[in-house]
UniProtKB/TrEMBL annotation, chain B:
<keyword id="KW-0812">Transmembrane</keyword>
<feature type="transmembrane region" description="Helical">
    <location>
        <begin position="327"/>
        <end position="349"/>
    </location>
</feature>
<keyword id="KW-1133">Transmembrane helix</keyword>
<dbReference type="InterPro" id="IPR025857">
    <property type="entry name" value="MacB_PCD"/>
</dbReference>
<dbReference type="Pfam" id="PF02687">
    <property type="entry name" value="FtsX"/>
</dbReference>
<protein>
    <submittedName>
        <fullName>ABC transporter permease</fullName>
    </submittedName>
</protein>
<keyword id="KW-0813">Transport</keyword>
<feature type="transmembrane region" description="Helical">
    <location>
        <begin position="284"/>
        <end position="306"/>
    </location>
</feature>
<feature type="transmembrane region" description="Helical">
    <location>
        <begin position="369"/>
        <end position="387"/>
    </location>
</feature>
<dbReference type="InterPro" id="IPR051125">
    <property type="entry name" value="ABC-4/HrtB_transporter"/>
</dbReference>
<feature type="transmembrane region" description="Helical">
    <location>
        <begin position="16"/>
        <end position="37"/>
    </location>
</feature>
<dbReference type="InterPro" id="IPR003838">
    <property type="entry name" value="ABC3_permease_C"/>
</dbReference>
<dbReference type="Pfam" id="PF12704">
    <property type="entry name" value="MacB_PCD"/>
</dbReference>
<keyword id="KW-1003">Cell membrane</keyword>
<feature type="domain" description="ABC3 transporter permease C-terminal">
    <location>
        <begin position="286"/>
        <end position="395"/>
    </location>
</feature>
<keyword id="KW-0472">Membrane</keyword>
<feature type="domain" description="MacB-like periplasmic core">
    <location>
        <begin position="23"/>
        <end position="255"/>
    </location>
</feature>
């Protein structure tokens, strides 16, 4: 197993997650170790039932692990039963989510879909919209800022979803099959954007994927099988 | 912070407007039901107001003249006039009947009024909107405009024809039937007047009775026949009091010395509102409760469905850190907006439809305010089910797996 020596980003040590008790107990995560540096994009690959979704939920502070340590940057968010009290604020401020489907709020226009997160964190509306517009410009969808999500193409929606994930500058972004509904060209474009944004915003990005088109682009990949992670070097193929 | 509720409403305004309109029709029916009750009370009170009386004298131990039949001799009023404190005492009859006019039947309350002056003699219509008051002793009538009668129209009451010489308004019985005023003598006759065949048969029966054909009592049969074809009864004596006179004292005197029952204004109101329309009021109250429950169920169902439609968005909102309060507030606000749309539509519908109801529908401003408050409370309570469901949504639903 290769272990990066870089600090910051995300660090997970000996993470376990058990569902149920006694005879019905099922250990979904047996031994998960991961470290993703700020600005790095890593792939998380595994067959169905391997524990990917459970790991994603633990990383996303949606469910509690049973054992182990999780750190986001310098902040310990879980340590052998101890956890951060306000998981909602943690998700809002420290974790960005990008899903297979963009899941934009259909009744908010593009700029407000992105600005909603800083607004929830208490940023005044004007400043939040400014931040959102800045990101939308970087992702080349600023011209659709006033459009409703239903008026956007699939690629545009995914870029808005990425902007939403990044807007609070979280130390980690969890991307769950972000390229699944896209063709090769658009899938690679999304990965390029994620790489660019990771570098620019010093964000650690974990991409859960089965997509053969994008797997060769990762420099590091975590495989998960039967609840155990294995790290390997990826091809790191450049994206044109 | 963005107002999520208003954005969602603006985004799917059609759904909200049409749902609100549907709800509004239900609220409109509820307001009309309340208006029907108020109309009943108002009809009862206007009957008392319009009679112009301070005291109603009726047959002993009856709730007449409106709630029970009451029969008094038409000379009783003379004795009442002699009681201290009484200013005026006048006979009156009430008879509810069906009047044929222009091939349609109109249900009216025929009021027999004693000779006197409008505005002074109790029982007379208080004002006219057209024509003149009754000036002749027979065959003239003043009708409420709700009867549909016009000046110069001829109506038949029993065997006599009456010409409408004046029109008045809001002169109705406690049941909402419009009034037709005719001279007292005609009204007394109309109460018991039979057809010719019936009179003839009655006379034959009386003539054949040996009790009335005694050889040593000449003229007995003629006297009996005369008394049978004339009616000397009235339903009530309306009394007005001199200024500053205590009605209780006058009532006590009438009951003590005349062996009659007398009611003051408050007693009469109690009879009309508390007794006569009590069953109708309970019936309407039941309808109001059912309609309120149905409205609450509909609002709850609509809000629940609207929330169910947004379950994925709610999961995403929770995942990205939206507070439960923000989500609950969004649902309550939408429910309240739905209630406001419904109330506005309901108020407009009820206000415009009220005049077309056959009976008087009175929608009071305080009832509208109370209705609005009730709608708001119902909407807030109805949104609790949807809020409970929304707060139980697992943010993991946004992630899947």
């Amino acid at each position: 197993m290769l272990m990066s020596q870089r600090v910051g980003g995300v660090r997970i040590e000996n993470l376990k997650k058990q569902y149920g008790q006694g005879e019905n107990a099922f250990l979904a995560l047996k031994d998960v170790n991961m470290q993703v540096a700020p600005g790095e994009v890593v792939g998380l690959i595994g067959p169905s039932g391997s524990g990917k979704s459970t790991l994603l939920k633990c990383l996303g502070a949606i469910i509690d692990p049973t054992e182990g340590v999780m750190k986001l940057g310098d902040q310990v968010i879980y340590d052998q039963g101890w956890k951060v009290r306000d998981l909602r604020a943690l998700r809002r401020d420290k974790i960005g989510f990008v899903f297979q489907a963009p899941y934009l709020i259909p009744f908010l226009d593009v700029v407000d879909n992105v600005a909603l997160l800083p607004m929830l964190a208490g940023v005044p509306n004007g400043q939040a919209r400014e931040k959102a517009l800045h990101l939308l410009e970087a992702l080349d969808v600023a011209h659709r800022a006033q459009a409703m999500p239903s008026q956007l193409s699939g690629g545009e929606q995914q870029r808005v979803a990425i902007a939403r994930g990044l807007v609070n500058r979280p130390p980690i972004i969890l991307a769950d099959e972000p390229t699944a509904p896209l063709d090769s060209e658009r899938a690679l474009a999304v990965i390029r954007i994620l790489n660019d944004m990771a570098r620019e915003y010093e964000t650690a990005i974990i991409v859960v994927t089965h997509d053969e088109k994008i797997i060769p682009t990762f420099k590091r990949i975590y495989h998960i099988r039967d609840g155990i992670t294995y790290e390997e070097a990826g091809q790191g193929r450049p994206i044109n | 912070m963005i107002n999520l509720a208003s954005r969602d409403i603006l985004h799917s305004w059609g759904k909200f407007i049409f749902t609100g309109m549907g709800l509004g029709l239900l609220i409109g029916v509820t307001l009309v039901m309340a208006g029907v009750y108020r109309g009943l009370v108002s009809d009862g009170k206007s009957l008392l107001d319009n009679s112009g009386a301070d005291v109603w004298v009726v047959q002993q131990d009856t709730l007449g003249p409106y709630a029970e039949p009451s029969s008094l001799n038409d000379d009783v009023y003379r004795g009442i006039l002699g009681i201290p404190g009484v200013e005026q005492a006048t006979n009156i009859t009430y008879l509810t009947m069906q009047v044929r006019h222009n091939d349609t039947d109109v249900r009216v309350m025929v009021v027999g009024i004693a000779p006197g002056m409008a505005g002074k003699t109790p029982g007379w219509p208080r004002f006219l909107v057209a024509g003149r008051h009754i000036t002749r002793s027979h065959y003239e009538a003043v009708a409420d405009i709700a009867t549909g009668l016009k000046l110069g129209d001829k109506i038949t009451l029993r065997r006599n024809q009456y010409t409408v010489v004046g029109l008045t308004r809001r002169m109705v019985s406690s049941g909402g039937d419009p009034m037709v005023f005719i001279p007292l003598k005609d009204a007394q006759e109309a109460q018991f007047l039979k057809n010719n065949e019936a009179i003839w048969l009655d006379r034959r029966k009386t003539q054949a009775n040996p009790e009335f054909n005694r050889p040593n009592v000449p003229g007995l049969l003629d006297s009996i026949l005369t008394s049978r074809t004339s009616n000397l009864s009235v339903n009530s004596v309306l009394v007005t009091l001199k200024e500053g006179v205590d009605p209780v004292q006058v009532i006590t005197n009438i009951e003590r010395w005349k062996y009659l029952t007398a009611y003051g204004r408050a007693d009469m109101e109690d009879i009309l509102v508390g007794k006569m329309i009590a069953t109708s009021a309970r019936q309407i109250a039941m309808f109001l409760i059912i309609l309120a429950v149905v409205s609450a169920a509909i609002v709850a169902f609509i809000i629940y469905t609207l929330t169910m439609d947004k379950i994925r968005e709610i999961a995403v909102l929770k995942l990205i850190g939206t507070r439960n309060f923000t989500i609950a507030s969004m649902i309550v606000q939408q429910s309240v907006v739905l209630g406001i749309i419904g109330f506005v539509v309901g108020k407009i519908t009820s206000s415009f439809s009220a005049p077309y109801f056959p009976k008087y529908v009175l929608i009071m401003p305080e009832d509208s305010i109370m209705g609005f408050v009730a709608v708001m409370i119902i909407c807030i309570l109805a949104s609790l089910v949807a809020i409970r469901m929304a707060l139980r949504v697992d943010p993991a639903e946004a992630v899947g797996g």
